[in-house]
Amino acid sequence: MAGRAIWKGYINFGDVNLAVNLHTAIKEEHIQFHLLHKKDHVRLRQQMVCAYEKKPVPTEEQSKGYEVEEGKYIIVDPAELEQTTPEDSRMIEVHEFIKTEQIDPVFLERVHYLAPDIQPKGYGALLWALEEMDVAGICTWTMRKRSYLGALQARGRVLRLTTLRYADEVVPARSLGLGEIPLSEKELKIGSDLINQLTVTFQPQKFENEHQKRLQALIDKKARGEKIAILKPRRVKPTTPDKLLQALEASLKKVA
Amino acid sequence: MKRKPRTPIRVPSGSSPGKEEEAASHGIWSGTISFSLVAIPVELVKAVEPGRVSFRMLHTKDYSPLQRKMFCPEEEKIVPPDEIVRGYEIGPDKYIVVTDEELESVTPERSRTIEVVEFIDMKEVDPLYYDHPYYLVPLKGGEKAYQLLVEAMHRTGKAGLAKFVLGEREYFVAVKSTDGVLTLITLHYREEILSDKEISPNEVETGADEKSHMKKRIKGMMADFDPEKYADKRRKKIMDILKKKAKEKAPVEAPEVGEEEGGGPADLMTALKESMRKVKKKR
Amino acid sequence: MSRKIVEIAGKRLSLSNLEKDLYPSYGFTKAHVLEYYRRISKFILNHLRDRALTFKRYPDGVKKDFFFEKRCPSHRPVWVKTAEVWGDEGERKKVCLVNDLETLMWVENLASLELHLPLARAGSPETPDSMVFDLDPGDQADILDCARIALILHDLLSELRLASYVKTSGKKGLHVFVPLNRGETTFEETKQFSKAVAEIMQENYPDLVTTKMAREYRKARVFINWSQNDASKTMICVYSLRAQEKPTVSFPLSWKELKKLAAQKDLETFQVMHFEAVRRAEKEGDLFHEVLKKKQRLPHL
Predict the structure, then answer these.
(1) Which residue of A has its CA nearest to B208?
(2) Domain coverage including residue A134
(3) A175 in contact with chain C, both atoms CB, cutoff 8 A
């Protein structure tokens, strides 16, 4: 079940003003480890240490600096940084609408649900229209002293607000400078056939976090004082360029 | 709404798990990606760099930079990386230590290989599943097989699904072909996704008029997606403050260690004094 | 936003934002920056080779935000060479080595107008190849004062049988380099030596020289920053552009020329602009070549 409402806002564009509640859509759980001192298992703390005195420095004696030149800093007052925090408003300002397919998934950060607050008037129309036209509203809002950029979309029963990354935070794929290796039409055809043979519908429930369970079992085993068998990670031999076609043909034979 | 941690992937660093560092000598991780009988040596690199303005913490009294170190509160001293172990709490102050080797033994078949078991159409994947994006780049010798996978996935319009283990976690991932490069997106597990049923509105009939009205409004605001249009305003404000300060006062610098200790080795000082005398005479 | 794919030595590189004006008061675009570095590459690459690069990036030009980068960006082209070094927080980090033209072009495409380097090579971070005297004028001093001090320093070093070479910082100061290139002298030694030399200079020219970092000592004096002789410090690479109003260059000068300029007393003439740097280097060759080659030992240590 979706988490409780973490924020209330208003979707705003033109004469539209919809009161909505923001809910979390993801709940992650991981086995948490702590860092310990090897000899006595005392839990370690992270400290800021002075490079010269080699002693931890309490927070009152710490200053924030911005490096402007090698080893030279401008000191920033936390109060000054406070001033830059945006004013909290409840507006989710929609600036424009774009075709959903134009958003490269690399820009998507986190999805949240937007449920209507009490009166769902207008909500249904927006939900319907966004899905029908397959568009997303690009919007900005401020929450808990932070500004966000996001996409307002419809999928399923509720509206969704997904935070977006800023353009300069995304590394363009072409900056990786990968070269182009010529491939034969045969290799490409067999490769494509192989992929099509291995294509299924998306069934995410098939993929479970087995590792968590096994890790828990390992921990339990150790707690009982049992010995753990050390297994080496499986390493696979890379397919050399001259053996590529062969490997593709053998693979296709296997799955067909 | 919590912002995701910088690099969600944590890597064991040999025998000392005390740091989030790059275990492999390349990128974040290196290993192979395989589908059926084809295996490609690859390296995982960042696709996203956070845009935060980064500050350095300094010691207020002399502006010397501070470093993050692990500290033992009992012995009251800094603990070097080789004395740090990873432990799981099973009771108050009771821990089970797990080594890197034991960690890799949990799922050895997926610690070094991303095995793509099936392919799907990305359109079927609800964006709700997306977690974090990375790029995979080929390592030496794997360029051809890599290119084949990139092109074949592009031709068929499909993406691969796999699971792989990195450090303490196992990731469910989608590997797709974008702009000639393999993008790896970690996905949330189905069980991590919360249902929207409870919070969805009751079925309310929306009139045809209302619908067409909304459609019209949206149509009037259509544009092309250009992420460059939007900038992080707060970052800009912080930079403006910094620029202003830089103009007002000169930046501070930590004193050099040993600045106070006078003189060098006797021989050198004598030689210098003598040489200086000669120089002054000539001038 | 223009984009261009070029191929250098069989490697593909995507160049972007070529018409972005990075020096708006002067009019020098990213394309111009790339062109400058391309033309100066046969001189600058020898000095960049095998050294951990610190980028100083100005993606929106010299008037806007800049940032330092010591780590080699993980999204680099696969052919960029890297080395592993220890960072100041005790962590291992990967640095970029600019050993060829294509890497230099990639670096400049990231608008790293300034290139800063440590005095030691990445493979042997504790043994510098040269000792440096970073002459930094106080608020009420200028490059002319630095020149006078540099000339005296040169004489002093010559008395000690040490050859030295000078370059402009491209900003307000001068850098005097003493090549070592023996792989045996440590930073501890160069720091000790340079500090002693700086103190002798201060002792004998107290109104012109200071060895103290604190602002109050520096006003009308030249600060001899001996503490730059450290594994964690970097210097602007010779032939690098500076992110000033105009694209000046950190350029080597012969001692003869420095003497002449000091006598003329004209501050402007000390600065070498980008086009002049290319012209002079192509005509006279690399005046800093000996800094990479000459083997010397520090005496009396």
Answers:
(1) A125
(2) 5-28+85-168
(3) yes
